[in-house]
Amino acid sequence: MPESEWRITSLVVADCDELGRVHTRIWRETYAGLMPAGYLADLSETRSAENWRRRIVQPEGVDAGSLTLVARRDGHIVGFASAGPSRDADAPTEWELHVINLLQTVQGSGLAELLLDRVLGERDATLWVVEGNARARAFYTRRGFTDEGGRSAHEPTDALEMRMVRRGTPD
Ligand SMILES: CC(C)(COP(=O)(O)OP(=O)(O)OC[C@H]1O[C@@H](n2cnc3c(N)ncnc32)[C@H](O)[C@@H]1OP(=O)(O)O)[C@@H](O)C(=O)NCCC(=O)NCCS
What is the pTM of this model? Predict the structure, then answer.
C-alpha cells in the first residue's frame, strides 16, 4: 500500500480512547497462546486509554522524551509505535523502541517499516520482545536487530522476553 494511504500523526489526547481499544485488541491477537488466557481477558481498554492519556498529559521519566505515533487507515487507528530514551539501567544504546503494534489486518503491508523509520530513524536502539513472538522477531532481525543475550520476565505473566539491539544503520 502506498505511504499516502496511511495517515500517521503524533498521539494526542483525543486519540487515547480509540488507542486503548486497539492496543487491547492487538495484545489479545498477539499473545493468545503466549500469555495466560485469563490475563488477556482481564486487559482493560479503559485502563490502556488512561495510561496513554497520562503519558501525554503528565509525562514522567522516559515518557517525557518519547515520540508516539498513531497510524490510521480510512479514519481508524490500525497501528502505533513509540520510542524514546531507554528504560534499562544497563542499556547498550540511549534509545529504545518501546512499542510497535499493528492490527493483524494490516500486518505485512509495509506499515510497520514506515512506523519504525518514523519513530527511530537511523538511531541505535534496543527493544524487548516476547521470545515466542516469532513474527516480531523475524521483523526486527530483518531490520538489523540482534539478540545479545539480555533476558527478563514480563512481570504480570512471567513470559520470557529477550532484548534485541541495533547498532549502526541497517542495510
Ligand atoms: C511485529 C510487527 C510490527 C511486524 O510488522 P509486520 O507488518 O507483521 O512485519 P512484516 O510482515 O514486514 O515482517 C514479518 C516477518 O515475519 C515473517 N513471519 C510471519 N509470520 C511468522 C511466523 N509465525 N514465524 C516466523 N516468521 C513469521 C514474515 O515472513 C516476515 O519476514 P520476511 O520479511 O523476512 O519475509 C507486527 O506483526 C505486529 O504489530 N504484530 C503484533 C504486535 C507485536 O507483536 N508487536 C511487537 C511486540 S515486541
Answer: 0.96
* Tens digits of residue pLDDT in 35-44: 999 999 999 9
| Sign of the torsion formed by the C-alpha atoms of 121, 125, 130 and 136 | positive
Strand ranges in 35-88 using DSSP code E only, listed in sequence order: 67-73, 76-85
Residue 66 CA to ligand 1 center (angstroms) comes to 24
Q: Residue 46: what residue type?
A: T
**CATH number of the domain located at residue range(s) 3-166 in this protein:** 3.40.630.30
**Between β-strands 146-153 and 76-85, what pairing exists: parallel, antiparallel or unpaired?**
unpaired
Question: What is the amino acid identity at position 117?
Answer: D
Distance 55 CA to ligand 1 centre (A): 27
Domain edges within the chain: 3-166
Which of 139, 154, 157 is the pocket-test mutation for ligand 1 (most atoms within 8 Å of CB)? Answer: 139
CA 60 to CA 64: how far, in whole Å? 6
Q: Which residues line ligand 1 (CB under 6 A)?
A: 26, 30, 100-102, 107-108, 112, 129, 133-136, 138-139, 142
Model confidence at 135: pLDDT above 90 = yes
